[in-house]
Description:
Elements: H1 8-25, H2 31-38, H3 43-55, E1 62-68, H4 73-84, E2 91-97, H5 103-115, E3 119-123, H6 129-139, E4 145-148, H7 159-169, E5 175-183, E6 189-193, H8 200-203, E7 213-216, H9 217-222, H10 234-243, E8 251-262, H11 276-292, E9 297-302, E10 306-311, E11 320-325, H12 330-342, E12 349-355, H13 364-368, E13 371-375, H14 382-392, E14 397-402, E15 405-407, H15 412-420, E16 425-433, E17 439-441, E18 443-448, E19 451-454, E20 474-476, E21 478-479, E22 483-487, H16 488-493, H17 504-517, E23 521-532, H18 537-557, H19 559-563, E24 587-588, E25 595-596
Parallel strand pairs: 1-2, 1-4, 2-3, 5-8, 11-12, 11-14, 12-13, 16-23
Antiparallel strand pairs: 4-7, 5-6, 5-7, 9-10, 14-22, 15-23, 16-17, 16-22, 18-19, 18-21, 20-23, 24-25
Helix pairs in contact: 4-5, 10-11, 17-18
Amino acid sequence: MTTEADSPGWKRRLRDWDAARRRRRRGELTYPEWAERHDTLGEAALAALRERLRRLERKPLISVLMPVYNPRPQWLREALDSVRGQLYPHWQLCIADDLSTDPEVRRVLAEYAAIDERIRVEYRESNGHISAASNSALALADGEYVALLDHDDLLPQHALLCVAETIDRYPGAALIYSDEDKIDDSGQRCGAYFKCDWNPELFRCYNMISHLGVYRTGLMRAVGGFRVGYEGAQDYDLALRCIESIQPEQIVHIPQALYHWRIHEASTAGGNATKPYALDAGRRALQEHLARNGLDAEIIAHGAGWYQVDYVLPHPTPAATVIVIDDGDADALQRCVDSLLAHDDYGLCEWIVASGNDKRALPAQWSQAGVRSIASPDAASLAALRNAAARAASGEILVFVDSRCEIVDAGWLGKLVSFAARPGTGAVSPKLVSEEGRIAGGGALLGMHGGLGSLGRGARADEIGYYGRTLLSQNLSALDDGCIAIARSAFERVGGYPQDYRSAQAMTVALCLSLADAGLRNVWVPSLQVRSHPASRWAAWLQRRRVHGDLARLRSAWPEAMTCDPAYNPNLTATRDNFTLANPPRIDIQKPWYVARVEPQAIPGN
């Protein structure tokens, strides 16, 4: 006989209770708790929002596009009510009914059109699917901007006001997107996606714009609107074409959940696995986008709704120089160089060991393999050694590898070079993985722990992480120092490694931020793994001390990036590396333009 204590349900409840207790001790909240505390509009907040509305200089008309086909009537009413309940009054709702077969749908639409003149409805004479219906809705739009809303989803009261404030502050904005969450069957908010600022590399992995997406109407019409044949990924295809016609600074992210996406059996809110045709349509749209931009790549589609883009090496293939930084550990250096030579399948490559010890003799087999040594015992800093090695290198692509790294992936160098050789790219780094199969570094996050953090540190190396952030290629403000690839032209453009930092980590962060200032994008490629062996306790302690001493210099040079990293959402905590919610958020969403504030450390018992 099974007792209650033996039942799986009882054990699950015990685990949930224990997990909740640990969250409380760390000061963490579940998302429903967080939304109730930090993202629910009370009377004071509503009064402040109305005052913000009054102060707007520009009040553009925003046309909300809603293609409709057989939604549940109650959900349709709720969607319509969410638009009519907007604090911002300068909107129109453009609805195209795609020949719904449920007569109640038409009755609901007619009712709402009769009571609000801002609602326009076209009843299509044939069913053309969502792209054709969306174009019919677009044809009704008079607004300067259009916002996309599905027929069963919801907008919070302040959604369009936040959009209008964005337009007021950034009059050149052509594409605006916000954070989003979901609503389950019980009406509870869940599944929040707090996004980073514009990230073209991550966008090539999935549609990170999604909801709430707002476009300049002229832009949407200029690119031809929605394309028939890309149903299920029509928004992704549209955005891919739009970003090709505008500048990156015209894409603005609002760090607030301004869209509630309803979860049900026919929705992709639970993942594209429910609509396989959508995954294929997205792959075709992405392939065409790459081709239009002169990029040759293989796209691997994953059933969960994301893509891995593997770029093809340019022709002619650029020569590369791998520079191994000797940190004084002879065993580590032996392991590193042996692994490099064992995975030498690139061809056009030279090998340099950069050492501060001029007495370091290279093994005969290394010399026979073409490895040479650059010794600079009088180098004034770690940067001087790296820069000296770069000057001695002949390759078009420079790859700096710490001697604690061990190469484990075949084709590693070709993959790094395929990213680093692309125009507009700064530094490129793989995922650094510990011997235990955990993420040890690779992608840096600024402002974490009061200084520097590492994206996903400690998580399993094969985890997809928070919306793909530990598995998918993405642009980051900065990278870790273990393994960095960079085109020589980009390296020389910013003057190489800066010489006024004592730690390799801070020096690499400064290099990456200088590249970003020069208009180049740094890329983390977590699908490529390099094993990272830990330094000795003394070396690790010394590195931490040096990084701590360098932080003031970094903050002085890049105060905004070091306070609120654009690659990391301010609604997420800066005290942990695991994308948990900030309590409270690191911005004040009750004030326009999200005044940054310091997140307090979690207090046990809160």
